Amino acid sequence: MDTALKSRLSYHRRLFLLLLAFSWTLVACFVLFQYGREKHFKAEQLNARLQLLNLRMLDALDEGADPATFIATHDEPFGELRITLIDRKGEVLFDNSLDTLPAANHLNRPEVVEALAHGSGYTIRRHSESTHRNYFYSAMLGERGIVRSAVPYSVPLSEVLAADRGFLWFMLGVTLLMSIAGYFATRRLGHNITRLNDFAERAERGERIDDLEAFPHDELGEISNHIIRLYARLQRTTADRDREHALALHEEQEKIRIKKQLTNNINHELKTPVAAIQGYLETLLANPSVDARKRTEFLEKSVAQIERLRRLLADVSTITRMDEASQLIQKEPVVLNDLVAEVADEMALKPAEQRLRVNIDIPKRVEVIGNPALLGSIFRNLADNASAYSGGRDLYIQLLDDTPEECTILVADNGIGVSDEHLPHLFERFYRVDKGRSRKMGGTGLGLSIVKNAVMIHGGTISVRNRDRGGLEFCFTLKKRA
Protein backbone atom coordinates (compact mmCIF):
# COMPACT_ATOMS: atom_id res chain seq x y z
CA MET A 1 0.00 0.00 0.00
CA ASP A 2 1.64 3.23 -1.19
CA THR A 3 1.71 6.55 0.61
CA ALA A 4 -1.02 8.11 -1.57
CA LEU A 5 -3.44 5.28 -0.80
CA LYS A 6 -2.64 5.49 2.91
CA SER A 7 -3.41 9.20 2.88
CA ARG A 8 -6.85 8.51 1.32
CA LEU A 9 -7.79 5.81 3.83
CA SER A 10 -8.36 6.54 7.48
CA TYR A 11 -6.56 4.56 10.14
CA HIS A 12 -9.56 2.44 11.09
CA ARG A 13 -10.30 1.58 7.42
CA ARG A 14 -6.73 0.46 6.86
CA LEU A 15 -6.92 -1.56 10.06
CA PHE A 16 -10.25 -3.06 8.96
CA LEU A 17 -8.86 -4.08 5.56
CA LEU A 18 -5.86 -5.65 7.23
CA LEU A 19 -8.11 -7.53 9.66
CA LEU A 20 -10.42 -8.56 6.79
CA ALA A 21 -7.54 -9.92 4.73
CA PHE A 22 -6.15 -11.77 7.72
CA SER A 23 -9.48 -13.33 8.74
CA TRP A 24 -10.44 -14.40 5.19
CA THR A 25 -6.98 -15.86 4.60
CA LEU A 26 -7.20 -17.74 7.88
CA VAL A 27 -10.66 -19.11 7.04
CA ALA A 28 -9.56 -20.07 3.51
CA CYS A 29 -6.60 -22.00 4.87
CA PHE A 30 -8.82 -23.72 7.41
CA VAL A 31 -11.44 -24.65 4.75
CA LEU A 32 -8.77 -26.04 2.42
CA PHE A 33 -7.27 -28.03 5.25
CA GLN A 34 -10.68 -29.37 6.30
CA TYR A 35 -11.59 -30.17 2.67
CA GLY A 36 -8.39 -32.16 2.25
CA ARG A 37 -8.99 -34.04 5.48
CA GLU A 38 -12.59 -34.89 4.53
CA LYS A 39 -11.62 -36.02 1.04
CA HIS A 40 -8.84 -38.17 2.48
CA PHE A 41 -11.27 -39.69 4.98
CA LYS A 42 -13.79 -40.59 2.25
CA ALA A 43 -11.04 -42.00 0.06
CA GLU A 44 -9.94 -44.16 2.97
CA GLN A 45 -13.53 -45.41 3.39
CA LEU A 46 -13.79 -46.31 -0.32
CA ASN A 47 -10.40 -47.98 -0.22
CA ALA A 48 -11.47 -50.03 2.82
CA ARG A 49 -14.50 -51.40 0.91
CA LEU A 50 -12.38 -52.31 -2.10
CA GLN A 51 -9.67 -53.83 0.07
CA LEU A 52 -12.29 -56.07 1.66
CA LEU A 53 -13.17 -57.35 -1.82
CA ASN A 54 -9.46 -57.78 -2.60
CA LEU A 55 -8.95 -59.80 0.57
CA ARG A 56 -11.87 -62.08 -0.24
CA MET A 57 -10.53 -62.66 -3.74
CA LEU A 58 -7.04 -63.44 -2.41
CA ASP A 59 -8.55 -66.00 -0.04
CA ALA A 60 -10.48 -67.54 -2.94
CA LEU A 61 -7.34 -67.68 -5.09
CA ASP A 62 -5.44 -69.38 -2.26
CA GLU A 63 -8.19 -72.01 -2.22
CA GLY A 64 -7.70 -72.61 -5.98
CA ALA A 65 -10.69 -70.68 -7.30
CA ASP A 66 -10.65 -69.07 -10.73
CA PRO A 67 -10.78 -65.21 -10.74
CA ALA A 68 -13.57 -65.08 -13.31
CA THR A 69 -15.60 -67.63 -11.37
CA PHE A 70 -15.12 -65.64 -8.13
CA ILE A 71 -16.33 -62.44 -9.77
CA ALA A 72 -19.32 -64.15 -11.31
CA THR A 73 -20.43 -65.70 -8.01
CA HIS A 74 -20.05 -62.54 -5.86
CA ASP A 75 -22.05 -59.36 -5.88
CA GLU A 76 -20.03 -56.31 -6.87
CA PRO A 77 -20.22 -53.42 -4.40
CA PHE A 78 -19.87 -51.00 -7.31
CA GLY A 79 -20.99 -50.90 -10.89
CA GLU A 80 -18.38 -51.49 -13.64
CA LEU A 81 -15.93 -52.87 -11.10
CA ARG A 82 -12.59 -53.76 -12.65
CA ILE A 83 -10.55 -56.61 -11.12
CA THR A 84 -6.92 -57.16 -12.11
CA LEU A 85 -4.50 -59.89 -10.97
CA ILE A 86 -0.80 -58.93 -11.23
CA ASP A 87 2.18 -61.13 -10.36
CA ARG A 88 5.15 -59.91 -8.34
CA LYS A 89 7.06 -59.19 -11.56
CA GLY A 90 4.42 -56.71 -12.69
CA GLU A 91 2.83 -58.84 -15.45
CA VAL A 92 -0.97 -58.82 -15.70
CA LEU A 93 -2.40 -62.36 -15.21
CA PHE A 94 -6.08 -61.47 -15.30
CA ASP A 95 -8.28 -58.43 -16.01
CA ASN A 96 -12.07 -58.74 -16.24
CA SER A 97 -12.44 -55.56 -18.28
CA LEU A 98 -10.12 -56.57 -21.15
CA ASP A 99 -10.33 -59.23 -23.83
CA THR A 100 -6.59 -59.18 -24.37
CA LEU A 101 -4.15 -58.87 -21.49
CA PRO A 102 -1.85 -55.84 -21.78
CA ALA A 103 1.84 -56.42 -22.35
CA ALA A 104 2.90 -53.35 -20.33
CA ASN A 105 4.59 -54.01 -17.02
CA HIS A 106 2.64 -52.68 -13.98
CA LEU A 107 5.42 -52.49 -11.42
CA ASN A 108 5.61 -48.71 -11.84
CA ARG A 109 1.92 -48.14 -11.04
CA PRO A 110 1.66 -46.09 -7.78
CA GLU A 111 -0.86 -48.43 -6.12
CA VAL A 112 1.26 -51.48 -7.07
CA VAL A 113 4.47 -49.88 -5.76
CA GLU A 114 2.73 -49.06 -2.48
CA ALA A 115 1.23 -52.57 -2.19
CA LEU A 116 4.62 -54.20 -2.71
CA ALA A 117 6.17 -51.94 -0.10
CA HIS A 118 3.43 -51.88 2.57
CA GLY A 119 0.97 -54.68 1.66
CA SER A 120 -1.72 -52.39 0.30
CA GLY A 121 -2.11 -49.11 -1.51
CA TYR A 122 -4.49 -46.93 -3.49
CA THR A 123 -4.57 -44.13 -6.05
CA ILE A 124 -7.50 -41.72 -6.03
CA ARG A 125 -7.49 -40.85 -9.74
CA ARG A 126 -5.26 -42.21 -12.49
CA HIS A 127 -5.77 -42.66 -16.24
CA SER A 128 -5.67 -46.24 -17.51
CA GLU A 129 -3.62 -46.83 -20.67
CA SER A 130 -5.60 -50.02 -21.36
CA THR A 131 -9.19 -48.76 -21.13
CA HIS A 132 -8.45 -45.05 -21.57
CA ARG A 133 -10.61 -44.19 -18.53
CA ASN A 134 -9.89 -42.69 -15.11
CA TYR A 135 -10.12 -45.04 -12.12
CA PHE A 136 -9.90 -45.15 -8.36
CA TYR A 137 -7.40 -48.00 -7.80
CA SER A 138 -7.04 -50.15 -4.65
CA ALA A 139 -4.36 -52.91 -4.52
CA MET A 140 -3.49 -55.65 -1.99
CA LEU A 141 -0.50 -58.01 -1.91
CA GLY A 142 -1.10 -61.75 -1.40
CA GLU A 143 0.65 -65.11 -1.89
CA ARG A 144 -0.53 -65.46 -5.51
CA GLY A 145 0.39 -61.89 -6.41
CA ILE A 146 -1.37 -58.53 -6.28
CA VAL A 147 -5.14 -58.15 -6.55
CA ARG A 148 -6.16 -54.69 -7.75
CA SER A 149 -9.74 -53.49 -7.82
CA ALA A 150 -10.75 -50.29 -9.58
CA VAL A 151 -13.86 -48.11 -9.81
CA PRO A 152 -14.34 -45.68 -12.73
CA TYR A 153 -13.81 -42.06 -11.57
CA SER A 154 -17.19 -40.88 -12.81
CA VAL A 155 -19.43 -38.02 -11.70
CA PRO A 156 -21.12 -40.12 -8.96
CA LEU A 157 -17.74 -41.16 -7.53
CA SER A 158 -16.39 -37.58 -7.56
CA GLU A 159 -19.49 -36.51 -5.66
CA VAL A 160 -18.88 -39.28 -3.13
CA LEU A 161 -15.32 -38.06 -2.56
CA ALA A 162 -16.26 -34.37 -2.48
CA ALA A 163 -16.34 -32.49 0.85
CA ASP A 164 -19.58 -31.41 2.48
CA ARG A 165 -20.44 -27.96 1.17
CA GLY A 166 -22.62 -27.21 4.17
CA PHE A 167 -19.46 -26.73 6.22
CA LEU A 168 -18.13 -24.34 3.58
CA TRP A 169 -21.26 -22.19 3.74
CA PHE A 170 -21.16 -22.25 7.52
CA MET A 171 -17.55 -20.98 7.55
CA LEU A 172 -18.39 -18.29 5.02
CA GLY A 173 -21.23 -17.10 7.27
CA VAL A 174 -18.95 -17.05 10.33
CA THR A 175 -16.34 -15.08 8.37
CA LEU A 176 -18.95 -12.56 7.25
CA LEU A 177 -20.10 -12.03 10.84
CA MET A 178 -16.46 -11.62 11.93
CA SER A 179 -15.94 -9.04 9.22
CA ILE A 180 -18.96 -7.01 10.34
CA ALA A 181 -17.88 -7.16 13.99
CA GLY A 182 -14.33 -6.27 12.94
CA TYR A 183 -15.57 -3.20 11.09
CA PHE A 184 -17.28 -1.72 14.14
CA ALA A 185 -14.40 -2.72 16.44
CA THR A 186 -11.76 -1.15 14.19
CA ARG A 187 -13.85 1.99 13.79
CA ARG A 188 -13.99 2.40 17.57
CA LEU A 189 -10.33 1.52 17.91
CA GLY A 190 -9.47 3.98 15.18
CA HIS A 191 -11.31 6.71 17.10
CA ASN A 192 -9.29 5.87 20.21
CA ILE A 193 -6.04 5.79 18.23
CA THR A 194 -6.82 9.23 16.85
CA ARG A 195 -7.26 10.56 20.37
CA LEU A 196 -4.07 8.84 21.43
CA ASN A 197 -2.26 10.58 18.56
CA ASP A 198 -3.61 13.86 19.87
CA PHE A 199 -2.14 13.06 23.27
CA ALA A 200 1.18 12.17 21.62
CA GLU A 201 1.24 15.47 19.72
CA ARG A 202 0.53 17.33 22.96
CA ALA A 203 3.39 15.48 24.59
CA GLU A 204 5.74 16.36 21.72
CA ARG A 205 4.82 20.01 22.20
CA GLY A 206 5.85 19.65 25.84
CA GLU A 207 2.35 19.82 27.29
CA ARG A 208 1.65 17.97 30.53
CA ILE A 209 -0.55 14.87 30.19
CA ASP A 210 -2.52 14.37 33.34
CA ASP A 211 -3.37 10.92 34.63
CA LEU A 212 -7.10 11.28 33.86
CA GLU A 213 -9.77 8.99 32.45
CA ALA A 214 -10.09 10.17 28.85
CA PHE A 215 -11.95 7.33 27.09
CA PRO A 216 -15.21 5.41 27.58
CA HIS A 217 -15.29 2.60 30.11
CA ASP A 218 -15.29 -0.29 27.66
CA GLU A 219 -12.56 -2.74 26.71
CA LEU A 220 -10.86 -0.52 24.14
CA GLY A 221 -11.41 2.54 26.26
CA GLU A 222 -9.78 0.88 29.25
CA ILE A 223 -6.79 -0.07 27.11
CA SER A 224 -6.49 3.51 25.89
CA ASN A 225 -6.87 4.88 29.41
CA HIS A 226 -4.18 2.48 30.55
CA ILE A 227 -1.86 3.74 27.79
CA ILE A 228 -2.49 7.34 28.88
CA ARG A 229 -1.78 6.46 32.51
CA LEU A 230 1.42 4.69 31.49
CA TYR A 231 2.48 7.67 29.42
CA ALA A 232 1.76 10.07 32.25
CA ARG A 233 3.71 7.83 34.60
CA LEU A 234 6.55 7.78 32.07
CA GLN A 235 6.50 11.57 31.98
CA ARG A 236 6.76 11.70 35.76
CA THR A 237 9.49 9.04 35.74
CA THR A 238 11.42 10.97 33.11
CA ALA A 239 11.07 14.16 35.12
CA ASP A 240 12.24 12.35 38.26
CA ARG A 241 15.17 10.89 36.36
CA ASP A 242 16.08 14.34 35.07
CA ARG A 243 15.95 15.68 38.61
CA GLU A 244 18.09 12.79 39.83
CA HIS A 245 20.55 13.41 37.01
CA ALA A 246 20.68 17.11 37.86
CA LEU A 247 21.13 16.26 41.53
CA ALA A 248 23.91 13.78 40.73
CA LEU A 249 25.57 16.38 38.52
CA HIS A 250 25.25 18.94 41.28
CA GLU A 251 26.74 16.50 43.79
CA GLU A 252 29.61 15.74 41.44
CA GLN A 253 30.26 19.45 40.93
CA GLU A 254 30.03 19.94 44.69
CA LYS A 255 32.59 17.18 45.22
CA ILE A 256 34.92 18.88 42.75
CA ARG A 257 34.40 22.20 44.52
CA ILE A 258 35.06 20.61 47.92
CA LYS A 259 38.21 18.92 46.60
CA LYS A 260 39.49 22.23 45.27
CA GLN A 261 38.62 23.92 48.54
CA LEU A 262 40.30 21.10 50.46
CA THR A 263 43.44 21.46 48.34
CA ASN A 264 43.52 25.21 48.91
CA ASN A 265 42.90 24.81 52.64
CA ILE A 266 45.61 22.17 52.91
CA ASN A 267 48.09 24.45 51.15
CA HIS A 268 47.14 27.24 53.52
CA GLU A 269 47.37 25.02 56.60
CA LEU A 270 50.75 23.62 55.56
CA LYS A 271 52.29 27.01 55.05
CA THR A 272 52.13 28.03 58.72
CA PRO A 273 53.93 25.04 60.31
CA VAL A 274 56.40 24.78 57.43
CA ALA A 275 57.23 28.47 57.68
CA ALA A 276 57.59 28.18 61.47
CA ILE A 277 59.94 25.18 61.22
CA GLN A 278 61.94 26.89 58.51
CA GLY A 279 62.23 30.05 60.61
CA TYR A 280 63.38 28.17 63.74
CA LEU A 281 65.98 26.10 61.85
CA GLU A 282 67.30 29.07 59.82
CA THR A 283 67.68 31.03 63.07
CA LEU A 284 69.66 28.21 64.63
CA LEU A 285 71.87 27.84 61.53
CA ALA A 286 72.45 31.57 61.28
CA ASN A 287 73.33 31.90 65.00
CA PRO A 288 75.45 28.88 66.00
CA SER A 289 76.41 30.65 69.21
CA VAL A 290 72.83 30.86 70.52
CA ASP A 291 72.61 29.63 74.08
CA ALA A 292 71.52 26.07 74.82
CA ARG A 293 68.21 27.06 76.42
CA LYS A 294 67.14 29.04 73.33
CA ARG A 295 68.31 26.24 71.01
CA THR A 296 66.27 23.71 72.97
CA GLU A 297 63.22 25.97 72.89
CA PHE A 298 63.47 26.37 69.10
CA LEU A 299 63.89 22.64 68.58
CA GLU A 300 60.90 21.87 70.80
CA LYS A 301 58.77 24.33 68.84
CA SER A 302 59.95 22.73 65.58
CA VAL A 303 59.00 19.29 66.91
CA ALA A 304 55.56 20.63 67.88
CA GLN A 305 55.04 22.00 64.38
CA ILE A 306 56.19 18.69 62.86
CA GLU A 307 53.65 16.87 65.05
CA ARG A 308 51.02 19.29 63.83
CA LEU A 309 52.01 18.48 60.24
CA ARG A 310 51.82 14.76 60.99
CA ARG A 311 48.31 15.06 62.41
CA LEU A 312 47.24 17.23 59.48
CA LEU A 313 48.52 14.73 56.91
CA ALA A 314 46.90 11.84 58.79
CA ASP A 315 43.56 13.65 58.92
CA VAL A 316 43.78 14.59 55.23
CA SER A 317 44.51 10.95 54.40
CA THR A 318 41.46 9.85 56.39
CA ILE A 319 39.20 12.42 54.74
CA THR A 320 40.43 11.46 51.25
CA ARG A 321 39.94 7.75 51.94
CA MET A 322 36.37 8.36 53.11
CA ASP A 323 35.58 10.58 50.11
CA GLU A 324 37.02 8.47 47.32
CA ALA A 325 36.97 4.86 48.52
CA SER A 326 34.27 4.62 51.18
CA GLN A 327 32.84 1.50 49.51
CA LEU A 328 36.23 -0.23 49.84
CA ILE A 329 36.56 0.39 53.57
CA GLN A 330 36.72 -2.98 55.34
CA LYS A 331 34.11 -3.63 58.02
CA GLU A 332 33.95 -6.17 60.82
CA PRO A 333 32.14 -6.69 64.14
CA VAL A 334 33.16 -3.91 66.54
CA VAL A 335 32.19 -3.61 70.24
CA LEU A 336 31.63 0.09 70.96
CA ASN A 337 32.14 -0.48 74.70
CA ASP A 338 35.80 -1.34 74.00
CA LEU A 339 36.34 1.79 71.89
CA VAL A 340 34.86 4.02 74.57
CA ALA A 341 37.06 2.35 77.20
CA GLU A 342 40.17 3.04 75.08
CA VAL A 343 39.21 6.72 74.78
CA ALA A 344 38.80 6.93 78.57
CA ASP A 345 42.23 5.35 79.06
CA GLU A 346 43.82 7.80 76.61
CA MET A 347 42.14 10.72 78.35
CA ALA A 348 43.64 9.61 81.65
CA LEU A 349 47.14 9.91 80.15
CA LYS A 350 46.71 13.54 79.04
CA PRO A 351 48.30 16.40 81.02
CA ALA A 352 46.26 17.54 83.98
CA GLU A 353 45.19 20.80 82.32
CA GLN A 354 43.76 18.88 79.33
CA ARG A 355 42.37 15.91 81.21
CA LEU A 356 38.59 15.43 81.54
CA ARG A 357 36.64 13.07 83.74
CA VAL A 358 34.99 10.54 81.40
CA ASN A 359 31.51 9.52 82.56
CA ILE A 360 30.36 6.41 80.68
CA ASP A 361 26.73 5.31 80.73
CA ILE A 362 26.51 2.32 78.37
CA PRO A 363 24.82 -0.38 80.48
CA LYS A 364 24.88 -3.11 77.82
CA ARG A 365 27.17 -4.56 75.19
CA VAL A 366 26.72 -2.69 71.88
CA GLU A 367 28.12 -4.26 68.74
CA VAL A 368 28.02 -2.90 65.18
CA ILE A 369 29.48 -3.97 61.85
CA GLY A 370 31.95 -1.27 60.93
CA ASN A 371 35.53 -0.12 60.56
CA PRO A 372 37.32 -0.08 63.94
CA ALA A 373 39.65 2.81 63.02
CA LEU A 374 36.86 5.09 61.78
CA LEU A 375 34.53 4.25 64.67
CA GLY A 376 37.38 4.93 67.08
CA SER A 377 38.03 8.27 65.36
CA ILE A 378 34.45 9.35 66.13
CA PHE A 379 34.86 9.03 69.92
CA ARG A 380 38.52 10.11 69.89
CA ASN A 381 37.95 13.32 67.91
CA LEU A 382 34.90 14.29 69.99
CA ALA A 383 36.88 13.67 73.19
CA ASP A 384 39.92 15.61 71.92
CA ASN A 385 37.69 18.46 70.76
CA ALA A 386 36.09 18.70 74.23
CA SER A 387 39.48 18.46 75.92
CA ALA A 388 41.06 21.19 73.78
CA TYR A 389 38.28 23.75 73.40
CA SER A 390 35.37 23.19 75.79
CA GLY A 391 36.96 24.55 78.96
CA GLY A 392 34.91 22.00 80.92
CA ARG A 393 35.98 19.28 83.34
CA ASP A 394 33.66 16.39 82.39
CA LEU A 395 32.98 14.32 79.30
CA TYR A 396 29.73 12.32 79.10
CA ILE A 397 29.28 9.30 76.80
CA GLN A 398 25.78 7.83 77.03
CA LEU A 399 23.79 5.18 75.17
CA LEU A 400 20.41 6.79 74.44
CA ASP A 401 18.79 3.98 72.45
CA ASP A 402 19.66 0.53 71.16
CA THR A 403 17.57 -1.46 68.67
CA PRO A 404 18.40 -4.40 66.40
CA GLU A 405 18.81 -1.91 63.53
CA GLU A 406 20.78 0.97 65.07
CA CYS A 407 22.06 2.58 68.24
CA THR A 408 21.97 6.22 69.34
CA ILE A 409 24.87 7.68 71.35
CA LEU A 410 25.33 11.02 73.11
CA VAL A 411 28.77 12.64 73.64
CA ALA A 412 28.71 15.90 75.64
CA ASP A 413 30.85 18.15 77.81
CA ASN A 414 30.10 20.72 80.50
CA GLY A 415 32.22 23.49 79.02
CA ILE A 416 31.40 26.90 77.58
CA GLY A 417 29.81 25.74 74.32
CA VAL A 418 29.86 27.92 71.18
CA SER A 419 27.76 30.73 69.80
CA ASP A 420 24.68 29.60 67.89
CA GLU A 421 25.92 31.09 64.60
CA HIS A 422 28.85 28.64 64.63
CA LEU A 423 26.76 25.48 65.10
CA PRO A 424 25.77 24.96 61.41
CA HIS A 425 29.45 25.16 60.38
CA LEU A 426 31.17 22.98 62.99
CA PHE A 427 31.36 19.94 60.66
CA GLU A 428 32.87 21.93 57.77
CA ARG A 429 36.45 21.20 56.88
CA PHE A 430 39.00 23.59 58.40
CA TYR A 431 36.25 25.58 60.12
CA ARG A 432 37.44 27.06 63.42
CA VAL A 433 35.47 28.96 66.03
CA ASP A 434 38.65 30.57 67.39
CA LYS A 435 41.32 30.25 64.71
CA GLY A 436 44.19 31.52 66.80
CA ARG A 437 43.39 29.29 69.75
CA SER A 438 42.75 26.28 67.53
CA ARG A 439 46.15 26.50 65.84
CA LYS A 440 47.82 27.13 69.17
CA MET A 441 46.26 23.95 70.52
CA GLY A 442 47.54 22.01 67.48
CA GLY A 443 44.16 21.36 65.87
CA THR A 444 43.92 20.58 62.16
CA GLY A 445 40.34 21.79 61.63
CA LEU A 446 39.37 18.38 60.23
CA GLY A 447 38.39 16.51 63.39
CA LEU A 448 34.64 17.15 63.36
CA SER A 449 34.49 16.70 59.57
CA ILE A 450 36.07 13.26 60.04
CA VAL A 451 33.48 12.51 62.71
CA LYS A 452 30.57 13.40 60.43
CA ASN A 453 31.94 11.40 57.47
CA ALA A 454 32.66 8.37 59.64
CA VAL A 455 29.11 8.45 61.01
CA MET A 456 27.67 8.71 57.47
CA ILE A 457 29.79 5.80 56.23
CA HIS A 458 28.21 3.72 58.99
CA GLY A 459 24.71 4.70 57.84
CA GLY A 460 24.03 7.23 60.60
CA THR A 461 23.39 10.90 61.17
CA ILE A 462 24.88 13.38 63.63
CA SER A 463 23.69 16.66 65.14
CA VAL A 464 25.11 19.20 67.58
CA ARG A 465 23.58 21.71 69.97
CA ASN A 466 24.44 23.73 73.05
CA ARG A 467 23.40 22.06 76.28
CA ASP A 468 21.01 23.89 78.56
CA ARG A 469 23.50 23.49 81.41
CA GLY A 470 26.50 24.57 79.33
CA GLY A 471 28.75 22.76 76.91
CA LEU A 472 28.27 21.06 73.56
CA GLU A 473 26.19 17.95 72.96
CA PHE A 474 26.77 15.65 69.94
CA CYS A 475 24.09 13.06 69.22
CA PHE A 476 24.67 10.47 66.51
CA THR A 477 23.28 7.16 65.27
CA LEU A 478 25.10 4.11 63.89
CA LYS A 479 23.51 1.35 61.84
CA LYS A 480 24.14 -2.13 63.22
CA ARG A 481 24.54 -3.47 59.65
CA ALA A 482 25.69 -0.47 57.60
TrEMBL record:
The Histidine kinase domain, residue ranges: 265-482
Chain segments annotated as transmembrane: 15-33, 167-186
Record-level GO cellular component terms: plasma membrane
Catalytic activity from the UniProt record: ATP + protein L-histidine = ADP + protein N-phospho-L-histidine
GO molecular function: phosphoprotein phosphatase activity; phosphorelay sensor kinase activity
All residue ranges annotated as the HAMP domain in the record: 187-239
Alphabetically ordered keywords of this record: Kinase, Membrane, Phosphoprotein, Transferase, Transmembrane, Transmembrane helix, Two-component regulatory system
InterPro entries, alphabetized: BphY/WalK/GraS-like, HAMP_dom, HATPase_C_sf, HATPase_dom, His_kinase_dom, HisK_dim/P_dom, HisK_dim/P_sf, Sig_transdc_His_kin-like_C
PANTHER family: PHOSPHATE REGULON SENSOR PROTEIN PHOR (PTHR45453)
Protein name stated in the entry: histidine kinase
Native source organism of the sequence: Candidatus Alistipes intestinigallinarum
